[in-house]
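Translate sequence into structure tokens.
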Amino acid sequence: MTATTFDDAFVAQVRRRPDATAVVFGADACTYAGLDRRVAGMAAQLAGAGVGAVAGAGDRVVLVADNSADHLAAAFAVWRAGAVLVTIYPSSTEAELASAIVSVAPALIVAGARVADTAQAAAGTVPVVGLDGSGALVGLPVRSGEATPTPAPVVDPDEVALICFTSGSTARPKAVTQSHRGLVGAAIAYARVWHLGDDDA
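Result follows.
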């Protein structure tokens, strides 16, 4: 059966190929099992902070950070926690970031180390936590010994999974939404075009 969310597809791959390389970014290389541990830990941190899960289903979490393995893990953690991922370019100015934050009204902002000061200045009253390559969300308690959020949220594949912003080349950046099912469908289409399969990291 075809997965209807990115996290379902990821978990299926973890089960099939836990020791295979999932992502390589510079010196940081993760197997599927290793990446899954990062995702589970961050998702548990989010759930522990009351973000996503059952009570906060539909919460939005802004992720503004440069590319990294932890950036990918944080994105999946947001989905696994039952929240909506909002991605904003790390090159955004403080004004652009503040405008985007106001428009999506997030419960939390996750910021990479390089953009942390800008994110904090733009955040208003929204809490900001860090993403510094440690494998955890800096500023939220680490819930040791817990692999997944409890209770695990049930995700409707037709609900919004992702809010991203246009480049703003001709006007103020605009929000674009995608459902879980839409993201999976797009990924399948790209995989066919680029001839990607299970053996590709």
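Note: The first strand starts at residue 21 and ends at 25.
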